[in-house]
Write a structure and sequence with these properties.
Blueprint (H helix, E strand, L loop, with lengths): L2 H8 L10 H19 L9 H16 L2 H4 L2 E5 L4 E4 L13 H7 L8
Antiparallel strand pairs: 1-2
Helix pairs in contact: 1-3, 2-3
């Protein structure tokens, strides 16, 4: 099974639904390139395959959920009902952060001069 098919299976996207294929393929490629750059490698280590796929599934779920579910509630007023949401934190330049970098450290190639 190829990466895209695996991501779609784990994200509960029907195989015949191609709505998100371009976005998923971009995230797969971009995440792989960032992982390679972070680990100073030119070939993708097989041990990171499941981490890449899980990360793309997480990106899909985070980016397709309604904004109200992702943004924190900033304030609620009961008289005349007002709900204010805080700003949703968008990912920065890098797709990989936090726990992912700790995992990637195990695969990092270090050069000594």
């Amino acid at each position: 099974m190829d990466r895209l098919a695996t991501v779609k299976m784990l994200a509960d996207i029907p195989e015949e639904d191609t709505t998100y294929d371009a976005k998923l393929n971009y995230w797969i490629s971009a995440t792989e390139q960032e992982m390679l750059a972070y680990t100073n490698r030119t070939e993708f280590p097989p041990g990171l395959e499941s981490a890449l796929i899980d990360h793309v599934v997480m990106l899909y779920k985070k980016n397709t959920a309604p904004d109200a579910q992702n943004a924190p509630v900033k304030s609620i007023t009961e008289g005349n009902t007002t709900i204010t949401y805080g700003e949703q934190k968008l990912p920065g330049y890098s797709l990989i952060t936090g726990d992912m970098t700790r995992l990637l450290n195990r695969f990092r190639v270090v050069c000594f001069r």
